[in-house]
Amino acid sequence: MARTPTTHDPFNAVAEPKRRQVLAVMGTQELSVNEIVERLGWNQPMVSKHLRVLKQVGLVSERRVGRQRMYQVNAEKLRPIFDWVTPFEKLWNERFDRLDEVLEEMQKRRKNNE
Amino acid sequence: MARTPTTHDPFNAVAEPKRRQVLAVMGTQELSVNEIVERLGWNQPMVSKHLRVLKQVGLVSERRVGRQRMYQVNAEKLRPIFDWVTPFEKLWNERFDRLDEVLEEMQKRRKNNE
DNA sequence: TTGACATATTCCTATATAGGAATATAATAC
DNA sequence: GTATTATATTCCTATATAGGAATATGTCAA
Questions:
Q1: What average pLDDT does this structure show over A51-72?
Q2: Closest Cα to residue A53, out of A16, A108, A79?
Q3: What tens digit of pLDDT does each residue of B45-67 get?
Q4: Distances in whole angstroms, Cα of residue B14 to Cα of each of A40, A79, B100
Q5: CATH 1.10.10.10 region(s) of chain A?
């Protein structure tokens, strides 16, 4: 079997460093492809291709305006990543008296079989 | 060029759902390979292979005890993921009066070229 | 309708899996 | 030594990129 496709979920989509760059450069703004191209200094097809993957997993939304296509980050799709990684954060960042909470969260996670 | 290797960084390592399961099932405990095998119900080589990738990116540490190998999650290696995804969390989770902070963080991130 | 602009797609290739099956290595006990 | 237990590795294959280069599609303007 091959690797999980990049378009399978947000985890796989943002595993590619360039796609994280795209999201970071977009931030909260709605940008056209060319604006992203300018900010990143990449060639246009490369940007379009990465946007395609991001769009397929819902990480960006597209809106057509004349001959432009405006893209915008759909941050909520990053939530599964945030939710998955947050419990671990306690392990390096907080005092030991919250370890029990960490364990509880792990337990729930285990039940959900994820 | 091919896809970024799974062993390149934590982002790529945990893109594989099975490896997230491994980390979740380990939690805060130090477990032998067989203990992980039992908890997940997978075959042993499969577990070993995934542990290998996780170890190569530092997400787990290994300790040899007799013929066993004890593995433990090294949560800190997940920090880059946490740090990257956290600013976006504000976009869906908090009131709009903190949007300026979000933008600041995005800006810093952009300067670090990540 | 022709040209310019904005963006997407296709074709190509080197590369890297993930999983199954079989086997190798290592440590311990007898 | 030999068997047993614990774990890792090798061999195999189908599959999916990511990037470069070239080209296609779509839209507007004169």
A1: 98
A2: A16
A3: 999 999 999 999 999 999 999 99
A4: 26, 15, 31
A5: 10-73
Identify any residues that bridge with B98 across adjacent strands, giving them in sequence order: none
Report the share of chain B in percent with pLDDT over 70.
Answer: 82
For domain B10-73, say whether CATH 1.10.10.10 is its number: yes
> How far off is chain B from A5, nearest CA to CA, in Å?
10
Mean pLDDT value across residues A10-18: 98
Residues of B in contact with A25 (CB under 8 A): 110
CA of B66 to C1' of D3 (A): 18
**Does B88 touch chain A if contact means CB atoms closer than 8 Å?**
yes
C-alpha distance from B21 to closest chain A C-alpha (Å): 6
Is residue B24 within 8 A of residue A24, CB to CB? The reply is no
Res. B112: pLDDT tops 90: no
